[in-house]
Structures are given as C-alpha cells and as structure tokens.
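Holo model, G3I. Inputs:
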Amino acid sequence: MKRIVSYVVLAVVSLATLQAGSKPTTLRQALKNDFYIGTALNRGQYLGTDEKAFNLVPKQFSAIVAENCMKSEKLQPREGEFFFDDADKFVAYGQKHKMWITGHTLIWHSQTPRWFFVDSEGKEVSKEVLVERMKKHIHTVVGRYKGKIKGWDVVNEAIEDNGEWRKSKFYKIIGPEFIKLAFQFAHEADPKAELYYNDYSMALEGRRNGVVNMVKDLQSQGVKIHGIGMQGHVGMDYPTIQDFEKSIVTFAGLGVKVMITELDLSALPTPQGNRGANVSDVAAYNEKINPFKNGIPAEAEAAWEKRYMDFFKLFLKHKDKVTRVTLWGVSDKGSWKNNFPVRGRTDYPLLFDRDYNAKKIVQLIIDEASK
Ligand code: G3I
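Output:
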C-alpha cells in the first residue's frame, strides 16, 4: 500500500513538473509564435559590463537593436574613418543568442556627423557629393553585416506631424529622392536584408498619410521596402489605441510588415506640446512634473499596467501584421525617458525595474500571450 501511495505521489509530482515546464516563464517563450519581442541595448549591456542585463536579455528577448552604436556619428565619426568595434560586439552578442538583429539607423537627420554635409572649407556640399557620401556609408555598413543583420532602419524620421517632409539637410541638399536612394543603396549592399522606414508619432493622421504616400511612391518605382517601424514612445494620455490601431491596419494594407520599434510608456505627466520623440523638443524641469522620484505609487502603477496591456492586447490582436515589438531599453534605469522631454526626472517606462527585476507587467504579458 505504502509503495502504491509513493508511486501515485511521484506520478502527481512528475505531472506537475511537466506542466510547469511547458508553461512559458519568459517573454521570449510566451511570444515565440506571435512576434519577435525585442529590446534596444546600450553599450554595457552587450559588452557585459552590465552583467545583469547581459544575462537577462537573451532569456527574455528574441530580438535586439543598438540604441546608439550604429548611428552614423558613431560608425563614421570622420570621413572614411569607420569605427566598428562596438557594433561588431553588438552583432556577435545577437548572433550568439540567436536573436533577430536590427540595424539602427542608416540615414537620420539627427546624430549624423557634421562633416557629412560640408566640404573642407566648411561650405555645404553639392547634391552629388552628399549622394556619394550616403552611398559609401550605406554600402560599407550594410555590406559589413551582410547576412548577419537581417533588417535595417534605412531612413529614420523623415516626415513631420502634418505629413510634410522634414526639412533636414538630406532633404534640403538632395530633395525627397534621398529616401529612394538610401533604400536602393541598402538593397545593393545586401539584397536579402529587410529594409524599413521608421518614425515616431505614427498614430497622427498627418504623419500616417505622409508615410502612406511616401511608401506608395517608393513601391510604384519598384524600390524595395519591406516594413514600417512605428516607434512606440507613448504616454498615459496619448495616442488613443484607436488611432494607433488605424495606423497598424493602414500600414499593413500597403503590403509591408509592421513593427513596433521603440516602445516605452512614460508614467509621468506630459508637458504641453511634447508628445513626440524629436530629440530637441525639451521642456523645463519643475517639481510638479516629476511626481514619482521616490517610487511609483500602486495606483499609478496599476493605471500604467492597464495602459501597457491595452497596447499589448492590440499587438496580439494584429499579430498577423505585427512582426516585432521592440522595447526602447531594458530597465527604467537606462531609459532615455528619464531625460526626455524634461531632463532629470524619474520615469518608469519599461518592463524591468532599476535593478532589472521583472515588473508585474511581464507576467501579465506572458499570461495574455498564453491565453
Ligand atoms: O556616449 C556619450 C557619453 O560619452 C557622454 O559622456 C554623454 C554626455 O552627454 O553623452 C553620451 O552620449 C549620449 C548617448 O545618448 C548615449 O547615452 C548622447 O549625448 C545622447 O544624445 C544620446 O541620446 C540618444 C538619442 O537617441 C540621440 O541619439 C538616446 O540614448 C537614444 O535613446 C535616442 O534614441 C532615439 C532613436 O535613435 C530614434 N528615435 C527616437 C529615440 C529617442 O530619441
């Protein structure tokens, strides 16, 4: 009798272990049949000096993007002098852990070194010279990571809220065809890489329409564009889920993949007029708009969780269109939101706390994906 009881106990324990083993415990496991779940990484996180992140990221995430080390000012600080040390290590880390690697970003009005646009006397270069510089930069960078980096943010933030072209140096010197050229150069350098257009505030009607017109125009000229990245720098009061959904559906209707590329949900009040991610749009500090510097109260955290879940439910609803959801950072400690749009605040926009503990939201997402 004793033996039978032991067998039964053993069988029950084994079954429970088996069931527990099959239940996803990480974001990467839980979302593996839905979309890539990614994160942006800063230097210490892929080099390993930030040990906690270095170990946590491959468990929780299936995709990575470099927060800064692949921007042109880092990769080619002086003409013809390329610096690949950090980017090489970032790519090796992603390959080692079988993560989808996105290159960010080839052509952007911001973080482009000054030399790109001027000659040796400091005078603005001609269209021909700038096109040649773009070509060399894109061919060198995309060529180096051919077959390793599977997708590129080719052009970043070229359209304004109202749908007009951003009047960047690229636009002013070359005209809107700089976009087509950038995509063509990237395709030449790695014909198998996916190529994306990436922008913020994509739920705004003006920007949505501007992006749609641009993509249609590229497609009509036979230019390869595989996806649209919707940066998700969102707040508690913007944008509406409905507007965000409308953009997902509209962009997917163009026959391209949709990616949520830079997701972070600020828990802090939004200063008037600062709803985008334009790095120069900063507002002055005051104590009232930094209410949680000693910790986030339970009520505020619950509202933040609910809002995050509204977004994740939306992404899961459209998992046939959304191929990747990438957080813009791992932990609240390193988030750019602590300094944007107001410097020196304490924000809580990401899924892991300042000590890399998973917040409750992680389990909520796992549960939602496992339903
Ligand atoms: O690395 C230097 C460091 O050596 C120096 O001591 C320090 C002093 O300011 O600056 C450090 O560089 C900063 C870098 O982040 C790394 O922390 C730059 O000043 C700062 O401008 C840079 O900000 C980045 C910003 O893009 C501009 O490139 C943010 O980390 C990054 O999160 C942000 O990311 C952008 C996306 O690429 C595009 N979409 C919007 C998004 C948010 O602005």
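Residues 58 and 97 are 6 Å apart (CA to CA). The longest helix spans residues 2-22.
Archived with the compound record.
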